[in-house]
Amino acid sequence: MNWDAPNFARSANSRTAHTRPDVDKPESDLRLIPWWSVALSALVFFAIQILFHRIMPPPHPGTAAMRWIMSYSWGTALASYMLLIGYISRDVKRRNMSGAVWMLMVLLMPAGIGAVVYFLLRQPVMTRCPSCRTELAHDFHFCPQCSFQLAPVCGQCFRGVHITDVFCVQCGHDLAQDSMPARLRSYTD
Ligand SMILES: [Zn+2]
Ligand SMILES: [Zn+2]
After folding, report:
1. Residue 16 lies in a domain
2. Which ligand is nearest the CA of 11, by number?
3. Based on the structure, what is the number of domains in the chain?
4. Range of the domain at 86
5. Which ligand is nearest to the CA of 156?
6. Among 128, 130, 178, 129, which residue's Cα sits nearest to residue 152?
7. What is the mean pLDDT of residues 19-32?
């Protein structure tokens, strides 16, 4: 493998690659929540208030405060769940997971268990190649489009190594022999 031929020259004019706000701006986590889920959440909250204060029979004089607390907590809980569903529907896409399967899980499993399972099992967010902007999964060592090195690897067997390793733990290769030490490439570029 030729270590000296990354396509840096291309990087300047290849930024026109298609953009996706969910991958390109990982810090905008709250902005992932789509408008329909915010609207649904407000709608659900007001529907619960109407249910408790208009449709249900009027409370006994002594329990009016309790009725307000119940309507507020049920409204908040269900409204938050709508926001959560909206967030997951967008979050699942930037992690290269199956949107249909996970939305079904979250909607069908009772009491929010589907959402808990989702947050336990979700994959890391996709990133972009610093050189050509291709979308990359978290475990790639090289960009599939331009061979940009993304993680420190052994120059002989190309398995991952730690930046402090002197020898490859898989094949025993002396990492200092790599033409430009492979384990350092991603940090010096
Ligand atoms: Zn690339
Ligand atoms: Zn090796």
Report:
1. no
2. 1
3. 1
4. 27-124
5. 2
6. 178
7. 64
